[in-house]
Amino acid sequence: MGCAISGLAPKTLGETKTEEDVAHLNEKQIQMIKESWKVIQEDIAKVGIIMFVRLFETHPECKDVFFLFRDVEDLEMLRTSRELRSHGLRVMSFIEKSVARLDQLERLDVLAVELGMSHYHYNAPPKYYSYVGAEFICAVQPILKERWTPELEEAWKTLFLYLSRLMKQGYQEETSRHHHEAASCKERPEKRNTPR
Question: How far is residue 88's CA from residue 24's CA, in Å, rounded to a whole number?
């Protein structure tokens, strides 16, 4: 079940690409992603399940973020889980919306930042975001078969790095907003019901 990709998950020795180094996708990469998405979406539920089962196999600590899966030891059982299927489909829907917005970066940026903000409320910290992209790439390689090329892999990596960076930004904005609100509440004197 091995899928070795580098440049998406946290840096290890020998990797050269970081989120800060990622340039926007070029027109050729956008077209490659859109064309490959047409094939991927035929197996959208399958990809979502494979992606999360692999995520929990390769990074078991990620299960802690998912209340429903936290105590599941038998990962094969997850393959038939309605809850995992449902979450996988939500993630795949986000990817689908992202692909549809590749020609409208402002809309894509808003989508990814908002998703990062919502992940603050799920207590899903940014350190896990890049793992999902890496597992997506591993899940779609067998589906795309001979269509999979190093150039296509690079395009998807670039997209996921871009999305991860924006989601982290949204998460950090929401964290700051909540810390600011909490600080403001502490600074306000308590209102007392005193007769006048």
Answer: 26
